[in-house]
UniProtKB/TrEMBL annotation:
Occurrences of domain HTH tetR-type (ranges): 16-76
Coiled-coil spans in chain: none
Highest taxon of the lineage: Bacteria
Portion annotated as DNA-binding: 39-58
InterPro entries, per database record: DNA-bd_HTH_TetR-type_CS, Homeodomain-like_sf, HTH_TetR, Tet_transcr_reg_TetR-rel_C_sf, TetR_C
Keyword match Lipid metabolism: no
Organism: Pseudomonas abietaniphila
Protein name: Transcriptional regulator, TetR family
GO molecular function: DNA binding
Length: 203
């Protein structure tokens, strides 16, 4: 679970617009076109804000990007927690999580892409702070997958002989790979077929 940081809006400035709504629009823009593919002019149009409003709220484009990334990580963690909440076995939780990613990665939603994947590819080598944020996020997701595998091995829904650390890495790669493939417009049937194949390995 991510924790809120100080990127949302600068203190001491009265809100003249819905910050969360603006950040949601920024998330979509940055996910589709990346940081370098998005100009302040693009953000003016996308968010419906002047450059002055953006600078007053977030300092600069990077500040807005960090705020959008923070909100994206928080929302993703909440969505994942919700999709696992009603599942009982470790295997059922893994399947629910992969199906969740499959639906995120297909058709129109998939073409928008994942802000984490986009950021990892575009900025991790050039920006050490962002690299740490993305690395920590990937570590959390991998650790969660490992816990679910071990839970499944304990409750008998996942084969005991499977190597939990290596399988967790494989599942993480599958999740992130789905988001990459989804940028080309893969359909739901293809995505769910991949999940089905993977789940067969756990039995």
């Amino acid at each position: 679970m991510t924790t809120k940081n100080d990127f949302s809006v600068r203190p001491g400035r009265p809100r003249e617009f819905d910050t969360d709504a603006a950040l949601d629009k920024a998330i979509t823009r940055f996910s589709e076109y990346g940081f370098h593919g998005t100009s302040i002019s693009d953000l003016n149009t996308c968010l419906g804000l002047t450059s002055g409003s953006i600078y007053k709220a977030w300092g600069d484009k990077r500040g807005l990007f960090l705020a959008a990334l923070d909100r994206y990580l928080t929302r993703r963690a909440e969505a994942i927690a919700a999709c696992l909440e009603s599942k009982r076995s470790g295997r059922d939780k893994i399947e629910a999580l992969l199906i969740h990613y499959a639906h995120l990665s297909c058709e129109a939603a998939g073409r928008t892409g994942c802000l984490v994947v986009e950021t990892a590819v575009e900025l991790s080598r050039a920006d050490s702070e962002i690299a740490r944020l993305i690395g920590a996020q990937q570590d959390r997701r991998e650790a969660q997958l490992r816990r679910l595998i071990e839970e499944g091995q304990s409750d008998g829904s996942v084969r005991e002989e499977l190597d939990a650390p290596n399988l967790a890495k494989l599942l993480l790669v599958l999740q992130q790979g789905m988001r990459v493939v989804g940028k080309t417009g893969s359909d739901t049937e293809q995505m769910l077929a991949m999940v089905n194949e993977l789940m067969g390995l756990l039995e």
